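Customer escalation, tier 2.

The customer says the design service returned an amino acid string that "doesn't look like it belongs to this structure." They asked us to rerun it and document both sides in this ticket. The original structure tokens are below, unchanged.
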């Protein structure tokens, strides 16, 4: 599907130069292609989540605040009593790869 979408993107850009395809359509196709480049959410065990938190010297409260979850939820993740939802897990993946500074304003 990605190769097909890239071909459509190329056609849209060529037709845009000819004035046949609108800029908004090209932008929409570009967005769809770029969205395919987002990495998959990597599952993590409670131990891995705790290791990420410890590496950056974060309390459970800080991780809870960054992920928009409760301290109780973070505690349950680390004890493998529950798993974070995909959105929270994506944030933890980003913290693991880049550091929590990316979320600090």
């Amino acid at each position: 599907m990605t190769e097909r979408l890239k071909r459509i993107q190329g056609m849209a850009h060529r037709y845009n130069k000819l004035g046949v395809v609108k800029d908004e359509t090209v932008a929409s196709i570009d967005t769809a292609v770029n969205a395919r480049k987002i990495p998959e959410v990597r599952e993590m065990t409670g131990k891995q989540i705790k290791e990420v938190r410890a590496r950056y010297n974060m309390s459970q409260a800080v991780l809870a605040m960054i992920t928009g979850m409760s301290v109780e939820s973070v505690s349950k993740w680390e004890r493998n009593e529950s798993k974070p939802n995909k959105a929270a897990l994506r944030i933890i993946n980003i913290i693991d790869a880049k550091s929590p500074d990316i979320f600090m304003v």
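Tier 2 assessment: The sequence is consistent with the input. Residues 2-35 form one domain. The chain has six helices and no strands. Sent an explanation to the customer and offered a walkthrough call.
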